User: Which sequence fits this backbone?
């Protein structure tokens, strides 16, 4: 049951004892006027004031009502819109809505951090089908029911209103539709796709010919204008080849528009720079090697050899640079045996070391790798807990390879400090730690999501990496899993879906970041390494929930954050708030599916992963090259491309999908390798001779 929605209103009652005598208009007007004159000046002012207030309130609430309608921001609106055909919306309204959506600033979010905002707007929810081994969900899925999986672009007016709407001068001459369904304005080179409207002039290189044919493009519609059917799981395709195709398509965009830069912006066909270190290229190296993409790998290696330099006056984030670049270089070194990658890793590792020069030995978040100066973020002297405790696998491995102990000593010291620090609750850790005092800050808030997630992952993985000899790590991990079970694991009211919520000063919040979907895989890895069997039971249940986070969305893609209903009812289990509807192409669910399949061989995990790949292809694949993060996983007609392909889509998401579908269990055997939190494989150390 939902409480009735709150309505703010002003009630104005004018009592009139003679109302029964109002039998004609003139008399009524005269009587009203007399009444009005009888009122004191104060009373009249008050009434006028209230009327003015009502008018303002009415005017103000109009846009928000329109917004609710546009964004399906509460359940009733969503269902109502669901009942009508999208084609009922006039094209001109549609195009304005699409463009407004494309222009709206996305919620502030970092790839690791998750969104910084947590608005409490109305909830929308949808119920899904019954999955194997889970309690019944109330209704069949409405995914794809009333929103056709339209693969082409939304219909846009061809009279120039597009430019008007986005505030540009009306100069559009002609809009042509190319073979991939994107619309290209010849005069102004405006490229639109699924609601994004970008001037191609922004791109670093000119857009390709409109006749360009994509190897991985969807089949052409039977008749021009027909929607292209979505890609569906037929079981007949070569899934490994489909992952390779997806990688090639992503790489094509990166190569053409962002080569050597950090991230591809596939809609504007340009690039974004974070550290200026070729982030996507380095994050992708070992994926290309694993997928057998030799030509692509050779080109990328050439760039590393000739262009990559860490001697740059640039501030980098210690954690992100370690997991993506240092981890990527070390992993590629292990796979290829090529010294080039080890040399680069050594150079980078030594340049990151100034971060550890703090009063507490808890590292700063940022380092200038050219100047050798580290500092905390401008607004605080705190570091994020996950960041300082998820760099250990890489630095320890660097010490082992170089026989230089300083890397390992620095990161082991962080673990020693955190191990004995007060402020935990049954093994759960707060999200921040101060670099001066070395103490936890913001105590009392516990999550397995953003800012804490990989702390738990690295406890287990360091223990495995080091040959299961470091008891403190195991102790902290086991205690934390008990803490998770005790404080954070709950079930939904309607169908008893198991999820991991958050604790804020003893108040439970049934909210789970997609980031938490790393946990089933980590729990399964622990169970595989001899930890209690109930870890695996929990992994199975949480895997189901992460699957539902995709399955129940209209695009088949998970939102960034989900809230769960704990009320016993036949209502929805999952609630998605408007600001949480985006998808950043994150890997955590496919990562866990990979572990679950390796350990159980249950084919359903592969099928779930396959559905996710199809959904990425249907809703995030950008004609011309690249995949994009999207704004709204609940709107298959206009998912709202964000114009960014995160490096982890190539580094992690596609790699885990490939490993999930591969029958070769010796390909990165989980008894020989551990994956860092960016999916870069590092060897489990050989046991010392006894
Ligand atoms: C990646 O950089 C890593 O997986 C990290 O641990 C969490 N955030 C992103 C992917 O979501």
Assistant:
């Amino acid at each position: 049951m939902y409480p009735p929605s709150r309505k703010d209103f002003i009630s104005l009652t004018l009592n009139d004892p003679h109302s029964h005598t109002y039998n004609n208009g003139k008399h009524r007007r005269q009587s009203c006027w007399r009444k009005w004159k009888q009122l004191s000046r104060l009373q009249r002012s008050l009434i006028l004031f209230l009327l003015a207030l009502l008018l303002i309130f009415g005017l103000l609430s109009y846009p928000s009502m329109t917004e609710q309608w546009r964004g399906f921001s509460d359940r009733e609106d969503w269902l109502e819109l669901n009942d009508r055909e999208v084609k009922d919306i006039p094209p001109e309204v549609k195009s304005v809505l699409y463009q407004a959506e494309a222009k709206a600033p996305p919620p502030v979010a970092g790839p690791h951090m998750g969104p910084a905002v947590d608005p409490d707007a109305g909830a929308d929810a949808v119920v899904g089908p019954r999955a194997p081994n889970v309690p019944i969900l109330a209704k069949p899925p409405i995914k794809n029911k009333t929103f056709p999986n339209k693969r082409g672009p939304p219909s846009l007016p061809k009279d120039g209103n597009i430019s008007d709407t986005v505030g540009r001068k009306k100069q559009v001459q002609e809009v042509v539709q190319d073979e991939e369904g994107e619309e290209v304005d010849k005069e102004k080179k405006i490229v639109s796709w699924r609601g994004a409207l970008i001037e191609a002039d922004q791109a670093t290189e000119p857009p390709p010919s409109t006749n360009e044919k994509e190897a991985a493009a969807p089949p052409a519609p039977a008749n021009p204008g027909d929607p292209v059917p979505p890609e569906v799981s037929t079981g007949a395709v070569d899934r490994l080849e489909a992952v390779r195709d997806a990688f090639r398509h992503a790489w094509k965009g990166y190569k053409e528009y962002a080569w050597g830069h950090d991230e591809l912006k596939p809609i504007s066909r340009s690039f974004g720079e974070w550290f200026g270190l070729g982030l996507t290229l380095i994050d992708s190296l070992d994926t290309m090697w694993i997928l057998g993409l030799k030509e692509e790998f050779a080109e990328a290696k050439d760039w590393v050899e000739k262009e990559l330099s860490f001697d740059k006056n640039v501030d980098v984030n210690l954690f992100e640079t370690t997991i993506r670049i240092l981890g990527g270089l070390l992993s590629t070194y292990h796979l290829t045996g090529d010294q080039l990658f080890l040399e680069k890793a050594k150079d980078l590792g030594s340049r990151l070391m100034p971060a550890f020069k703090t009063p507490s030995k808890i590292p700063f978040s940022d380092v200038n790798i050219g100047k050798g100066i580290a500092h905390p973020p401008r607004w605080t002297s705190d570091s994020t807990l996950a960041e300082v405790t998820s760099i250990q696998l890489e630095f320890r491995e660097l010490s082992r390879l170089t026989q230089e102990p300083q890397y390992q000593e620095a990161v082991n010291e962080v673990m020693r400090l955190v191990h004995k620090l007060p402020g935990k609750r049954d093994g759960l850790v707060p999200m921040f730690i101060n670099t001066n005092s070395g103490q936890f800050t913001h105590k009392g808030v516990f999550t397995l999501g953003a800012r804490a997630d990989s702390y738990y992952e690295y406890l287990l993985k360091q223990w495995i990496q080091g040959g299961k000899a470091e008891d403190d790590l195991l102790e902290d991990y086991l205690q934390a899993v008990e803490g998770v079970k005790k404080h954070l694991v709950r079930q939904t009211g309607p169908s008893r879906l198991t999820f991991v919520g958050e604790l804020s000063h003893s108040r439970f919040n049934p909210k789970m970041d997609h980031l938490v979907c790393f946990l089933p895989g980590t729990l399964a890895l622990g169970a595989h390494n001899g930890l209690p069997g109930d870890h695996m039971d929990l992994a199975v249940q949480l895997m189901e929930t992460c699957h539902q986070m995709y399955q129940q969305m209209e695009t088949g893609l998970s939102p960034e954050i989900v809230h769960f209903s704990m009320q016993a009812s036949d209502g929805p289990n999952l609630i998605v708030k408007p600001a949480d509807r985006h998808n950043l192409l994150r890997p955590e669910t496919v990562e866990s599916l990979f572990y679950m399949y390796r350990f159980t061989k249950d084919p359903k995990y592969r099928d779930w992963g396959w559905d996710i790949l199809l959904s990425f292809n249907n809703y995030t694949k950008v004609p011309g090259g690249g995949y994009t993060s999207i704004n709204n996983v609940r709107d298959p007609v206009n998912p709202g491309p964000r114009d960014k392909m995160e490096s982890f889509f190539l580094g992690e998401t596609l790699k885990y999908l490939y490993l999930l579908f591969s029958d070769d269990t010796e390909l990165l055997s989980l008894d020989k390798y551990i994956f860092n939190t960016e999916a870069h494989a590092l060897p489990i150390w050989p046991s010392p001779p006894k």
